[in-house]
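Table 4 source record.
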Amino acid sequence: MSSKIDRLKELAEELSSYEIERKKNFKRVEELFEKLKLNDKIENFAEIFSFKAINLSGISLSFDALGKAAEGKYAQIIAISYVEYKGRKKAKNISLGYFGRADRLDDDMKSDIVEFILRWRLEKSFLGVDHYRKLLSIFQAQQRP
């Protein structure tokens, strides 16, 4: 009996730590959004999650070179959305922030930019999990006689 209770306690701790991490992440994304002045392009912070993706040019996001500036390239945060064009979906790139030559940025600015992208992607994945949890809930409710 105690092993079931222990497993339940572990699960409860895991879920609460997940929610705590998510809240901290969301708050930090919002702070970085303002710090990087992305609110100059997108007034409402919540709209930032309507984009399909956010990419970064000029600074690496790969495991082996995370945060490393590309020589002679420009640092820019690019949001990707889809628009209808002649009955087809077409990707649309929107510059959210332009920061100049990546190799001339100070380390704090590069760090904030990379952190924003990574934290935005983490929150976007949380939103995906929420979406599929809701769909599963609806599906399971429909399957019950």
